[in-house]
Design a protein that fits this description.
The protein is an alpha/beta fold. The protein has 14 helices and ten strands. Strands 2-1-3-10-4 form a five-stranded mixed sheet, with helices on both faces. A five-stranded mixed sheet has the order 7-6-8-5-9. Helix 3 crosses helix 12 (271-280). The protein is globular.
Length: 350
């Protein structure tokens, strides 16, 4: 009988494969050539966001678009939400979009479990921005506290479940020691904790900060204090990397995102950044500017955790791979650093 981790991998791979044939039949190419910086023509680029764009998570991309950084690079970037990372990866492979942003574990499964023809080429978030929220009367302050607990997760088989499993493994816990229960992403899940129906749940950084403000007894665990996984990377197809014209577009994309990140970092009060975000999208957390600023500063820290914007640190990537192997998400003995490149980063030689 397959172990839970094997079933987890099987579900992820099945989802990856199931939509690929349909997408291969229905999708056209991505990022046609043209639109060099300063030429006046813009190259269309589709960026697939696996969650709604109305989140501080996507601050670099939103500011790059609304602040004109993409346009200066001759790019017309359109955001398109997908039904999860599996669909986003399938679409990129099929050539229906040039870029998506997925978690490191999803990247590991794609390349290590299925040898999908994709590669990571930048790391906008260099440490986990997912948090685990529990209550003070039965807090989860570290991996050992997960024993015997029921943890709410947004969906089955995704990044959140992998993160919980990886955390539990660092404390020597097995799948039988920690229960996971799908609770979705709806507001008010903390009430399930207060009612004792679950012991904790996994949320995005935005939500964790908001809950902690509204619920003084909430306890928030930052997984990045324990594990390397939980980061996010930009992913494209290997076919795009091999195409000089599309490779140039990817380099311009990274230059624009880096310029966007630098502008946000320089805006220390963050007032200008919040205005740019709010003028473009109805992002709920912006209704509480102080909370939004506190949250955004944590996101900014995650952009710089490895010391250089957008750079994928090989040592951290190896640790993420080792964690994925321990979770039986991918086989051992693979070249962990073979499916990412930093060659497209501004200033890199390629």
């Amino acid at each position: 009988m397959n172990s839970p981790s094997h079933r987890h991998l099987s579900r992820a791979l099945a989802a990856l494969v199931s939509g690929l044939a349909l997408l291969l039949a229905g999708c056209g190419g991505a990022a046609p050539a043209g639109g060099a910086p300063g030429s006046g023509d813009l190259t269309p680029v589709t960026f697939l966001n696996v969650l709604p764009i109305e989140s501080l998570t996507f601050t670099p991309e939103i500011v790059a678009k609304e602040g004109g950084y993409f346009e200066r690079e001759g790019l017309d970037v359109q955001f398109q939400v997908t039904r999860g990372s599996a669909q986003a990866i399938q679409t990129v492979i099929a050539g229906g979009a040039l870029v998506t942003r997925v978690s490191d574990s999803e990247m590991m499964v794609a390349v290590g479990g299925r040898d999908a023809p994709v590669s990571a080429f930048g790391q906008p978030s260099q440490q986990a921005t997912i948090r685990i929220v529990s209550a003070a009367d039965d807090p989860i302050r570290g991996p050992a506290d997960l024993r015997g607990k029921t943890i709410g997760i947004p969906s089955e088989g995704g990044t959140s479940e992998t993160l919980i499993d990886t955390l539990a493994r660092t404390a020597g816990l097995t799948d039988a020691d920690v229960k996971k229960q799908v609770v979705g992403l709806a507001p008010g899940i903390y009430e399930l904790v207060q009612q004792g129906r679950i012991d904790a749940y996994v949320v995005a950084l935005d939500t964790a900060v908001t809950v902690q403000r509204q619920q003084p007894d909430a306890v928030v665990l930052d997984p990045s204090q324990v594990i390397a996984g939980g980061t996010q990377v930009y992913m494209t197809s290997q076919a795009a990397l091999a195409d000089p014209a599309q490779r140039d577009v990817l380099q311009r994309f990274l230059r624009a995102v880096k310029a966007s990140q630098e502008s946000v970092i320089a805006d220390q009060p963050l007032d200008s950044t919040l205005k740019t975000l709010g003028d473009a999208y109805d992002i709920p957390i912006l209704r509480e500017p102080d909370v939004a600023k506190e949250t955004l500063r944590q996101y900014i820290a995650s952009w710089q955790a490895s010391g250089e914007l957008l750079k994928i640190a090989p040592d951290q990537w190896s640790r993420v791979y080792d964690e994925a192997v321990a979770e039986q998400l991918v086989p051992g003995g693979l070249d962990a650093n073979g499916r990412f490149t930093n060659d497209l980063l501004p200033g890199a030689s390629s």
